[in-house]
C-alpha cells in the first residue's frame, strides 16, 4: 500500500513538529531536562521514543501533504536513529535495542535502493535499445524506457536525470535539432542562451577567485566548492544543449513540452480542458499549480497560451522530481502557428 493522501497546506503541522523536536532536545540536552528525568526517566524515555518514531514522522508527512506507508516507515526508522544519538546512554538504558530497529530498517531501505540502481545498469542495453525505437524526443523516450524495464522510484528518476545530463553535456554535440512541422521552439526569440552563458562565465570566474583564496583557509571546503561549481557548469551546458536539441513537439496523442533538463511535460490532448490565448490571465501572476514553459529573457515575459487541464498532470523537474500541475503556461517563438496547431489537434481528439 502506497496510497497518497493530499491535504491543504497547514503550518500548524510544522509548528507542532518543531515543538515535539524542540521539547525532546530541551529534555535531554539542558539542566532543566535533567531535573525532569531524575524523577521518572523510564516513562519519559518511552514517551520520547513514541514522539520521535511515531508522532514526528506523522507530523512531517502531514506538513508535506503526502502521507504514505513507505514515508511513515522511513520516518519511524529515522526517528529511532535520532533517538539513539539524542538520548544519553544512561537514560536510554534497556531501551537501546529498540533503536537498532531503526538502523536495520534504514539499512534495508539503502540496500533496496542499491539493488534498484544496479538493476538500472543491468538493463541499460535494453533501455538504450527501447529508447532508440521510440519516436518521442530523447528527453521523454529515455525515462519512459527506464520505467518500462525498472520499477518507478525517485532514486531511479534521479539517476536517469543525471545520465541525461552527462549525455547532453558531453555526447550530444554532433546532433542537430529536429525542426519538423510538428516542432516548435521556445527559446530562439529570447535571451535564454545568452543568460545561460553569462551564468557559466560567472561561475568559472567565481570558482577561480574563491577557490584560490579558500584553498589557503580550508582545503576540504575549497575542494567541495570546486566540485559543486564544476557540477553547476556541466548542468548548465547540458541544459543549453537540451533546450537547443529538444523543441516542443506535437505527437500523435500527446503534446511534448520541454525547456531544458529540469522542465518537461507530456500532456494528452484529451486532458486539455481549455485554451486561453488572451485576457488578464496571461499578463497577471500565474498560480502555483501552473507549470511554466517560458524561456529566460532580460525583459519580463508573459505566456502566449495558458492550458487548463481536466486533471493534474505531472511535470518532470530537477533531478527527475515529478510534480502535478493543473495548468500550463507556454511562450513560443511562433505564437500563431502554435495556437493553430494546438486547436487543430484538440478538434481532432
UniProtKB/TrEMBL annotation:
This is Beta-carotene 15,15'-monooxygenase. The chain crosses the membrane at residues 12-30, 36-60, 67-87, 99-124, 197-214, 220-238. It comes from Bhargavaea cecembensis. It comes from the Bacteria. GO terms for molecular function: monooxygenase activity. Keywords: Membrane, Monooxygenase, Oxidoreductase, Transmembrane, Transmembrane helix.
